[in-house]
Request: fold
Amino acid sequence: MTRGIIALVLALAGIFIIDQNIKTLFLEGYRFYSDCIDLTLVYNKGVAFSMFAFLEEWLKWLQLLLITGVLIYVVRLKKTCYMLPVGILVGAGLSNVYDRFVQPGVVDYVYWHCGFDFAVFNFADVMIDVAVIWLLLLNLKPHWCRGTEAH
Reply:
């Protein structure tokens, strides 16, 4: 279990630091434009596709509460196989919530527009997707977690 907690904390810190450093590039003015992808600063006041923007200041507190709940749940679950993906999920989530406290919204910067317009997103959003898929696979394939409970 101790190794699991260490993996969770390192993943959380690593994802948070990487994401915040990438966002700093765009906050300092980095831009790139191409036929398919634009890298440009956008502030998202909602969540995916700007949903829940109407919650305004409440959104960051609600997200913080949800992230705390996930963290408490997985630590109490004591399954080490969940620690790394949850560390990634929580680190990315905290990085986006942190933006809400220090910026006008979440700092997004990847705009895909090749063939169709897609939402603007960031590294943390991708890591959240990776973590969710990883957790879904662990739940669909429970034998991948067998023998990982703490004693």
